Amino acid sequence: MMENILLIPIGAVDSGILDSTAGALREIFGCEAMSGKSQPVPPETYDARRRQYASHRILKILEPLKPDRHTILLGVIDLDLYVPQLNFVFGEADPAAGVAIIALPRLRQEFYGLKPDRVIFLLRAAKEAIHELGHLQGLDHCPDPGCVMHFSNSLRDTDVKEARFCAACRESLMKPGS
After folding, report:
1. Sign, Cα dihedral of 155, 156, 158, 163
2. How high does pLDDT run on average in the chain?
3. Which of 26, 92, 115, 157 is the most exposed place for a label (fewest CB within 10 A)?
4. Is there a catalytic annotation at residue 162?
5. Taking Cα atoms as reference points, which of 149, 133, 161 lies closest to residue 24?
């Protein structure tokens, strides 16, 4: 298991979101989770045609900010992300580098023209953060739709899953080398 989680805001990110996410990560992973120094949004990661930011490029920029091998780094950005093969992503992880990122815009009710709901939004952010850190701990996507490691192809998928690992994923996390 990891020893520390460092949350790095990329651009402007509400400190309440970072605090809530860090609390959820502490609870699930049983380790220290703290916010670090905000980093500017890397302009070279913007794709003007898509009007989105390339998460895989941001991960490469985050990698040198990781302080040591015992700390994993989670970037938090309030901008829309994509990977080339998908229309958007809620987050992405690079297990080899020990870095991950989550994107906040599509987790908000108002992104879809609905009334804002901060409680639902913060729960979704926690789920996506736990999911990406699960990848950093060696977990793949889980077939159980209630497990936090289930792939979210839509916000409905995120809402259906819980903010915790299923028994099989918990067991995988407990195995030596995880």
Report:
1. positive
2. 94
3. 115
4. no
5. 133
Q: DSSP letter for 162, please.
A: -
Distance separating alpha carbons of residues 53 and 58, to the nearest angstrom? 8
Nearest to 133 by CA among 98, 157, 107, 178: 98
Q: How many CB atoms lie under 10 A from the CB of residue 150? A: 21
Q: Which two tokens stand for residue 154?
A: 């839509």
Confidence of residue 70 (pLDDT cuts 50, 70, 90): confident
The sign one gets for the Cα dihedral 67, 73, 77, 83 is positive
One-letter identity of residue 77? I
Check 27, 32, 132, 162 and give the catalytic one: 132
CA 58, CA 47: separation in Å to the nearest integer?
A: 12
Name residue, tokens 């987790």: 107
Residue 146: beta bridge partners? none
Question: Which candidate, 102, 46, 94, 28, places its Cα nearest to that of 66?
Answer: 94
- Whole-model pTM: value is 0.95
Torsion of CA 33, 36, 40, 41, to 10 degrees: 0
